[in-house]
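User: Fold both of these, please.

Assistant: Here is the first one.
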Amino acid sequence: MNDREAKTHQTLVRSREVFAQWVDDFAAGGAARQEFADLQAAITEVEHQAAAHGTGRSNAMQGTQTQNEAREALVAGMLAIREAAKVMNVEDKFPYPPRNNDERLSQVADVYATNALPLKPQFIAHELAPDFLEDLAADKTAFEAAIAARMNAVGDHIAAREELGDALARGLQHLRNLTSLVKVKYVNNPGKLAEWMAASHIERSARRAAVASGGATPPAPPTP
């Protein structure tokens, strides 16, 4: 969660804890108790989606590293074939593997496999391992699997981000509804009203508060 979302979550939790102390003051089966139940459910969903977003983002970052490593392994194997092809005077059949276009790299790997197959004995005679084509196929499979895994992780954390926003919005709506019902219930109890308003208030970040008040954000202290 970013700072704004974290402050909203904290407000929802504070409000839940305060209302839990007063729930018996409200009619059983009434609107306030239903809003309270819905608020609790929204908070649970917020926390679930925040965890899912964090996990998905971490997996996406790890996926990027894995994809980079798989790319380098594939390129290294292809370059070894290309070096042998130079000596064999068939270099033109094995174009230089691109590092900045993953789709093109997979395509070029297929070209290597196709063109190397009829020349396999010669490549082995030029110091490539007997199973170099099998290694090339395995590296290409690992590379494409890494791409798919990273894309899935990115999709997961984007979806969780959307669900997190929706859950926070639902929580805020239930909080607003509860605020109205609390005002009705405690119209003659300024102490409880003040406690509720304090609990249900969402604190602004220091920067937003400074901008709203017309002030400037204090500069960061100089780095020693």
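And the second sequence with its predicted structure:
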Amino acid sequence: MNIKEKELELYNQYKSGSNMAKKKLLTSLKPIIQYQVNKFNGSGLPVIALKLEGRRLADHAIDTYDPKKAQLNTHVVNNLKKLSRFVMNYQNIGHIPEPRVLIIGKYNVIYDNLAADLGREPTILELSDAMKISVAEIERLQSELRKDLSITTPTDDGEGGFYFFAPASTGTVDRDEVIKFVYYDADPVDKKIME
């Protein structure tokens, strides 16, 4: 008898009233639970909290399992995907809504184009006219896009373009270099937030 058949037999015993069968079934699913929990080890949450939530989700998966629709392991893994919601509830993660990201991108492009055409920084009225949005909205965008938080990339002026060589370290930490380091290690959602 293979593992799938044993798990199905334990499930049938549980459905006929044996709580011990459910405990054995949860024990046999422990590697799957642990694998899913390990995905969130770097989340900052205690591992025990992740394991307890994973066990709770697996327990719920056993209760809602229908042998006619899928294998038990597949059903449990699909339920364990909800572990990411648990993690997100306890992390301080903010996401910029997509329409706002598009407006910010449009602002940056128009600002750069106007600055290049005019040979100076464009005024708020010029930006407002070019973007066809109110002056108040331009002021809000400018307050959100503070220059001291922006990441600059070197231009291609003989330094190798995007790839450049930094001078030997003087022992001080360069804020821009740290931000670039964090940026390139971030996932796509965090990169959008940093942009």
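The chain has three domains: 3-89, 95-145, 151-164+172-195.
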